[in-house]
Design a protein that fits this description.
The protein has about 625 residues and is an alpha/beta fold. Among the domains are: about 190 residues, FAD/NAD(P)-binding domain, CATH 3.50.50.60; about 100 residues, Guanine Nucleotide Dissociation Inhibitor, domain 1. A five-stranded parallel β-sheet has the order 12-2-1-16-25, covered by helices on one side. Strands 10-9-20-21 form a four-stranded mixed β-sheet. Helix 15 crosses helix 21. It is globular and about 80 Å long.
């Protein structure tokens, strides 16, 4: 492919390679994703001609999948994990599981909730097919709340289908019986939008956004347009300019060139710069978009990163979750790898041969009372670059690789989860009256009139057990009196958005069998929003998260709060060192070409080495890639 006139040839070649990485196409036009599916799901790797001793650093999903494939091919695998007991990395479920060293943080041991990965989109075939291959049960995750009385949500999930760029169709799984076909419920739009003191249902905002948009002083021509539509229209400018001509095009080369042009011209822009300079939006419109569409933390970061994410994942995407928790996926590898995983070994140094095989890894226990040396022919490094920064590698890696390790931007993310003894978000007003008056006669009317707000004894009134004193004190100090009850929510799944510190709240898509209550993701934040929570201890987080939920749902939800919760800051986690890689402007072109590149006997995997940052799919793509590299002797 010749370099277009006026473009720098070296940069253009880099952008072409990056475009192929986006589309997962090889230079000969073959579909890389199709090959990965056949390796991971169907055939495995060819049997190794010469078995290698493979050291894998990290027992997250990338390390486990790579180890599984290489072991099947006949290689000797050793997976070195710093965590004393747990597999999975950032796939982590709070649950009661003594066998794996997990003690439930919740009052009801049947309850569980996700600290990390919680949903799988339809267009991630590696992940979905692997779930199905292991016989794990998946069910819909409602990113948008639904009318639970519609559809057939508990029908059998459809087979996983992937249509390759070559025209080949790959499928995994049979079609369900006609009377057992999954049918998505109807979207309901009953979740809340509460910003600038204005609150309405999401469906109301979609039909008439003027009141909320006016609170941001959005200009007149955009006042009647929902923020998500304004964002989509802005991104559509890039689509029209670069991709519209290739829509449905049979030639993969045309799609590669379109992506290459977009990367060449826009990689140096932040999302904020794109929205102002290219889309022509002013600061008020961008404030509304950032607040309502959860991209405030992404505004100073790379436009191309957000564009790729939005082009692949959008509000209409269907999502899935694992029944019983996401932890089942990494632990499905446990019986296949057995004692090949060595826990409680934090890597301190990696020594490698400059040419040819040879790797020596020194690791120590978390307590520091024991060390162990591992010797292999090659190594797979899956730890995030933010963590790799603290590992000594001798001899030094290339300058370009070291720059990428130092500079690759990592975002932070923090979750605060609260347990309630009843699923009040699904209540009607009749349910509220029955439950509240069952706790104390007349309590429903007291909350409805706002007279209950002067009382400090109502937190946890409807549950057994004590609210921790620190939480109770925080709640008493922050109590908002004189507040009449908000309308009954009648919500199934989905999430609400607010400009208070909680920012985004997600409600469980399904009840836990045998449990009358549930766990709500009361606050899900990124970047600076997450840092505001990271400064608090756990009890303070729970109290302020409940207070933020009461601003949206009313004070009466407090009676069902058990005093129990769970919280996860990935920035403060000393195994993760951040939530995920997110490119800063210019980093796609500058760093991605070397991030995944092997250096001597050292190979690199993990979501940060893919272009699906933060997703299980990206980690699995990288796992298959390094397994092929090693097995084919690259």
């Amino acid at each position: 492919m010749t370099t277009p006139d006026g473009l720098d040839e070296a940069r253009w070649r880099v952008c072409l390679d990056l475009a192929r990485d986006v589309l997962l196409l090889d230079s000969d036009g073959s579909d890389r994703k199709l090959r990965y599916l056949k390796v991971l799901i169907d055939e495995g790797l060819p049997r190794a001609v010469v078995a290698k001793r493979v050291l894998i650093v990290g027992a997250g999903i990338a390390g486990l999948a790579a180890g599984y494939l290489l072991k099947q091919a006949g290689h000797e695998v050793r997976i070195i994990e710093a965590n004393p007991r747990r597999l999975g990395g950032r796939i982590k479920t709070f649950r009661d599981d003594p066998e794996h060293g997990m003690t439930s943080p919740f009052a009801d041991p049947l309850q569980y909730a996700e600290a990390g990965a919680m949903r799988i989109p339809d267009m991630h075939p590696l992940t979905l097919a692997l779930v199905d291959k292991f016989g794990l049960r998946r069910r819909p995750f409602y990113n948008v709340d639904v009318d639970a009385a519609t559809g057939r949500p508990y029908g059998s999930p459809p087979p996983v289908i992937y249509r390759a760029a070559t025209g080949e169709v790959w499928r995994n799984g049979p079609d369900p019986e006609a009377d057992d076909v999954y049918e998505a419920p109807t979207a309901a739009g009953r979740t809340w939008v509460r910003v600038n003191g204005v609150q309405m249902r999401r469906s109301e905002y979609q039909s008439d956004p003027s009141a909320i948009n006016e609170s941001f002083s959005v200009r007149e021509d955009l006042r009647g347009v929902p923020a998500g539509d304004t964002l989509d229209a802005a991104l559509h400018r890039a689509y029209v300019q670069y991709h519209a001509a290739t829509e449905g095009a049979g030639e993969a080369a045309e799609q590669v060139e379109a992506w290459a042009r977009l990367i060449y011209e826009l990689d140096d822009l932040s999302m904020s710069q794109f929205l102002t300079k290219v889309a022509g939006l002013d600061g008020n419109a961008i404030d509304a978009i950032g607040t309502l569409e959860n991209i405030t933390s992404r505004l100073p970061l790379a436009f191309v990163h957000s564009y790729m994410a939005r082009s692949m994942i959008n509000p209409s995407t269907r999502y899935w979750e694992l029944e019983g928790g996401s932890w089942h996926l990494p632990y499905a590898f446990e019986p296949l790898l057995g004692e090949d995983v060595v826990f409680d070994r934090r890597v301190a140094t990696i020594q490698h041969a400059v040419d040819g095989p040879g790797v020596t890894i020194e690791a120590y226990s978390e307590a520091g009372d024991s060390r162990e040396t591992f010797i292999g022919d090659v190594a797979v490094i899956t730890v995030p670059f933010s963590g790799l920064r603290h590992i000594e590698i001798e001899p030094m890696l290339s300058y370009a690789k070291r720059r990428a390790i130092i500079e690759l931007h990592y975002d932070s993310a923090t979750k605060v989860l609260l347990e309630f003894s009843r699923r009040w978000w699904e209540f009607t007003e009749q349910d509220w009256r029955r439950e509240l008056d069952g706790i104390e006669p007349g309590l429903y009317d007291s909350y409805d009139r706002g007279t209950a707000d002067d009382r400090t004894d109502l937190v946890g009134k409807g549950v057994t057990g004590e609210i921790p004193p620190r939480q109770r004190l925080d709640l008493e100090r922050a109590r908002d009196g004189g507040q009449r009850s908000h309308p009954a929510d009648r919500i199934t799944g989905g999430g609400s958005v607010t400009d208070n510190a909680n920012r985004f709240m997600y409600y469980p898509s399904h009840p836990v069998p045998g449990s009358p209550g549930g766990v709500v993701l009361a606050s899900y934040t990124w970047a600076d929003d997450a840092a505001r929570w990271d400064s608090m201890d756990d009890d303070d987080r729970y109290a302020y998260a409940l207070r933020g939920m009461q601003e949206v749902h009313g004070n009466r939800i407090e009676v069902f709060y058990t005093g129990h919760g769970a919280t996860q800051s990935w920035a403060r986690n000393d195994f993760a060192f951040g939530e995920a890689a997110v490119f800063a402007p210019g980093q796609l072109v500058e760093h991605h070409p070397v991030i995944a590149a092997a250096e001597g006997p050292l190979h690199f995997a993990g979501e940060h080495t893919s272009l699906k940052h933060s997703w299980i799919e990206g980690a699995l793509e990288s796992a298959v890639r390094v397994a092929l590299e090693i097995n084919e002797g690259q």
